[in-house]
Each structure stands twice: as C-alpha cells, then as structure tokens.
Design a protein that fits this description.
By secondary structure, the chain is an alpha/beta fold. The chain has seven helices and nine strands; from the N terminus they run αββββαβαβαβαββαα. It has helices at 2-24, 97-109, 126-138, 171-177, 201-208, 222-227, 229-243, and strands spanning 60-61, 76-80, 85-87, 91-93, 112-115, 157-163, 186-193, 213-214, 218-221. Bound molecules: flavin mononucleotide.
C-alpha cells in the first residue's frame, strides 16, 4: 500500500526535482535519471553490523595504493551513507546503491573512503525503514554514528554521498555534517534515488556548510547503480571529467 502511495507521489517528486536541478545547476546525465518504473525482485538479506565506539576511525578505508595528493596538494575523501537490505525497486541487496557509486568514485580519484553508519541499524524491511526515517526526519533527530574521523582537517575535498530519503538527506548525514568544520573545503555531493534526483539537497548543503564550496552534484538512479553498473560508471566518469578532479 505504501509502495503504491510512493509510486503515485513519484511524478510529483520528479517535478520538484526538475525545479531543484535547475536551481542547483546539477550535472545531468541520461543514464543517471530514472523513468520511474520500478520492479520488485528478491535476493538474500544482508546483516548490518553494529559497532559502538564513536571515537575511532574504523569506518575509514585509506587508499594507500594511490596517492590521494593531487597536483594542487589536495587530499580527497569520499564520505557516504548507504543502506543495504530491502530497497526500492531492487529487492534485498548486499551492498547499498550509494555505496556502489562511492566505491567507483574512490577508485577513480584514489580517495580514502568513510562510511557513515548509524549506531542503531534501520529496519531491513523497506516499508518499516521509510516509516522510521520519516519519523526521525520530522523530529529533526541527529542519530549517533559508530565512528568519527580523527584527522578530518587532512582532507580538503570531500565527496559526500547519500540516498535521497523523503526529498532530503538521511539524518545520519546531518550528524556527520555537524561533527566537523567544513570551512575552506570543497564538497562534492552525489546521491542515488528512485526518481527524485538530488531534490533540494545541494542548496541545503550550500546554506548549511558555511565557508565551504559546494559543487554541483551527481544523481544516479538506485536501480542503475545496483543493476546497470556499466552505465552508472559511465555517468560517474563523465561527471568527474566535467569536474576536472582527476
Ligand atoms: C527511507 C527511504 C526514503 C526514500 N525516499 C525517497 C524519495 O523521497 N525520493 C526518491 O527518489 N527515492 C527515495 N527513496 C529511494 C532511495 O533513494 C533509493 O532506493 C536509493 O538508491 C537507496 O540508496 P542506498 O541503497 O544507498 O541506501 C527512499 C528510500 C528509503 C529507504
């Protein structure tokens, strides 16, 4: 029933997204947009692991094989939130849609990566997760995260990835943003979605991150990230080339 309501709302959300894209000057790419048609497939469930020491950097993967210093001396981080388990149009997945795109970006630019993980995992079932996320958003909660980056100041470019949740970023991303000083940093958003694109998130980031430069974002349909990775990678590479970040 909720899925049907969501499907009915999708055209409205897409209209809103179109406006938001125009406002933010978001990079557009044919393969990154979703035509709104959804499918349901079933695969195996994935367990979310729960770690509880928020002071360490255990969620960080350093990319030692590639020098993350660029010619102008920048160091690059890919920070992302992503959820596996039952998701929209893809059934139960082992690896979240945004996680897939985050790995492509990190690999391509030779960045370190950091997964933003909520201490209490969201429900594995899609409908239960949407309910909980909506309650959390309406209450403006800032859920606790499992880990913190000790040397955030080492990075001057941060790719920030998240799924579109209720036309916004998930609340754990807000916890992440409010945990660090972003002044002087370049922030490059990317999201996966089921038709809404980036919604107004680029503008939200621009007004929230004082002193940071927030570039135009990339939106990739979650179904493309999960099931059509050749096209997803093409969208990522085209976008990175336009950003001239490589
Ligand atoms: C709680 C929740 C809310 C969502 N809200 C939206 C939405 O407003 N617009 C949209 O296009 N997709 C929405 N989706 C779909 C996700 O954006 C999409 O499936 C995304 O690719 C999931 O990425 P992930 O696997 O990295 O978490 C929602 C999904 C969830 C779980």
């Amino acid at each position: 029933m909720k899925k049907r309501i969501f499907a009915l709302l999708l055209p409205l959300m897409m209209l809103f997204t179109l406006t938001a894209c125009t406002e933010s000057g978001q990079a557009s790419n044919g393969s990154s947009t979703n035509n709104g048609s959804q499918q349901n497939s079933s695969t195996e469930k994935n367990d979310n692991s729960d770690t509880s020491d928020p002071t360490n950097s255990e969620n960080i993967t350093t990319n030692d094989s590639v020098n993350t210093d660029t010619e102008n001396g920048s160091r690059i981080l890919v920070a992302f939130f992503s959820r596996a388990d039952e998701n929209y149009g893809v059934g139960y997945i082992e690896k979240g849609n945004t996680h897939i795109i985050a790995d492509m970006i990190a690999e391509e630019v030779g960045a370190d990566s950091f997964e933003i993980v909520r201490v209490t995992p969201y429900p594995k079932e899609y409908d239960a997760c949407t309910d909980e996320a909506k309650t959390e958003k309406n209450a403006g909660e800032r859920p606790e995260l499992t880990a913190k980056i000790e040397k955030f100041s080492d990075y001057d470019t941060v790719f920030l990835g998240y799924p579109n949740w209720w036309g916004d970023m998930p609340m754990p991303v807000y916890t992440f943003l409010e945990s660090y000083d972003f002044s002087g940093k370049t922030v490059i958003p990317f999201c996966t979605h089921a038709g809404s694109g980036l919604s107004g998130t680029v503008n939200t980031l621009r007004s929230k991150l004082n002193g940071a430069t927030v570039l135009d974002g990339l939106a990739v349909a979650g179904t493309t990230a999960q099931n059509d990775q050749d096209n997803a990678r093409t969208a990522v590479l085209d976008w990175l080339e336009k950003l001239d970040i490589k």
